[in-house]
Amino acid sequence: MLALQAAAYRPGCVTARSGRRLYVLVPAGDGEAGPARTLLASARSVPRDVVLAGAGPVAAGPAGLPASREAAELVVRVLRERAARLPAGEVRSAAAAYDEVVPEATVLRLLDRVEPLWGSLPGPVHAMVEHDRVHGSAYGDSVTAYLDASCDTGTAARRLNVHPNTLRYRLRRARELFGVDPADPAARLLAEIGLRLAARRSHRTGSP
After folding, report:
1. Which residues of 80-105 are buried (b: 16+ CB within 10 A; e: fewer)?
2. Beta strands in the chain (DSSP E)
3. Which of 22, 27, 20, 26 minimizes the C-alpha distance to 2?
4. Residues 133, 208 contacting (CB under 8 angstroms)
5. Which of 38, 94, 115, 178 could crosslink 124 through cysteines, CB 3.0-4.6 Å?
6. DSSP-derived secondary structure letter, 49
7. How far apart are CA 120 and CA 90, in angstroms?
8. What are phi and psi of 32, to 5 degrees?
9. Per-residue pLDDT for the chain (208 aa), expressed as one digit of tens each?
10. Do residues 75 and 125 make contact, with C-beta atoms less than 8 angstroms apart?
């Protein structure tokens, strides 16, 4: 359906499929900044399925196409990570252009560089993640929710569907047991990095 919509979108559209991915090359008019924006909107209308669509920046010529495709793929990764933080019943189709997700895309690029090094740097976050894996505890999820909520206990507790006092207890124990203290800037940064990488690894393996 999306391939047909893309082919009919405007003359010169070229489509190619790779597994479950559909790539669309959209010709831009003179000075046109977002030739794919209307096409992106159609991705949200596909019934009974979740579609994530991303558009890279306009390439000045054929040599710029690989970079534009890479940017579009990065947008889809951003949308996938957003979806992974939602309850399954709330996940919906989504679309975005690269210039709309630059901060998140930049974080993903940085994490890609850090990931090969992270495993050789054991520390508090590693210990907490391993404890959760072995014992089925939820310290990592609790710290993640707290950080995602800009350290607002009430908001984080609602997202976790727990009482705020339960969340405060978990955060206190994470600090006592592992030294993961969101109040400390360095510890907070390491927790952000480590927990994002742990979530990425869990998503790849399908493990809890």
Report:
1. ebebeeeeeeeeebbbbbbeebeebb
2. 14-18, 21-25, 52-55, 94-97
3. 22
4. yes
5. 178
6. S
7. 36
8. -75, 125
9. 778 887 777 788 888 888 889 898 888 877 777 778 778 877 777 777 888 999 999 998 899 999 999 999 999 999 998 888 777 788 888 989 999 999 999 999 999 999 999 888 888 999 999 999 999 999 999 999 999 999 999 999 998 999 999 999 999 999 999 999 999 999 999 999 999 999 888 766 655 5
10. no
Amino acid sitting at position 46: V
Token reading at 39: 């096409």
179: left (phi over 0), alpha (psi -120 to 50) or beta: left
